[in-house]
Amino acid sequence: QVQVVESGGGLVQAGGSLRLSCTASGSIFGINAMGWYRQVPGKQRELVAHITSDGSANYAESVKGRFTISRDNAKNTVYLQMNSLKPEDTAVYYCHAVKRTRVGVVDYWGQGTQVTVSS
């Protein structure tokens, strides 16, 4: 089993910054991509950013140029630096890890951390 734990959410004013962290532990061998999704009530969970073990990253259009995802493979940790935050970035942010196993791909999710951006 893999445990995924996020930290770093909170309340910030528009234009401010926050950094989220996520660490995977347990049976981490085979974890490839890690990243962040977010969800607001009544809407589907959406991709924010993802990064593979070799550092290849992709971002949602809405956060390009403002958010930066990075990864420390030695610590099994992924970070999301969020700058120039907007009220529409308010959501619960979930860390996501993808593990390749002999029987297929398994997804793991964190419990979520609230990010609130006030106008």
Layout of secondary structure:
Layout: E1 2-7, E2 10-13, E3 18-26, E4 31-39, E5 46-51, E6 57-59, E7 67-72, E8 77-82, E9 91-101, E10 104-109, E11 113-118
Parallel strand pairs: 2-11
Antiparallel strand pairs: 1-3, 3-8, 4-5, 4-9, 5-6, 7-8, 9-10, 9-11
Summarize the structure.
The chain is built from no helices and eleven strands. The protein is mainly β.
List keywords for this structure.
119 residues, 7-stranded mixed beta sheet, 4-stranded antiparallel beta sheet
Describe this structure in words.
The protein has no helices and eleven strands. It is mainly β and 119 residues long. Strand 4 (31-39) and strand 5 (46-51) form a beta hairpin. The mean pLDDT is 95.
Mean pLDDT: 95
Class computed from helices, strands and strand pairing: mainly beta
> What is the end-to-end distance?
40 Å
Query: Care to count the β-strands?
Result: 11
The parts where pLDDT drops under 50 for at least 5 residues are none
Per DSSP, what share of the residues sits in E-state strands of 2 or more residues?
Answer: over 45%
Using only C-alpha atoms, the radius of gyration works out to 14 Å
- Please give the oligomerization state of what you see: single chain
- Major beta sheet summary: 7 strands, mixed
| General form | globular
The H-and-E topology, N to C, reads as EEEEEEEEEEE
Count, helices: 0
Roughly how much helix do the residues carry, as a percent range?
under 10%
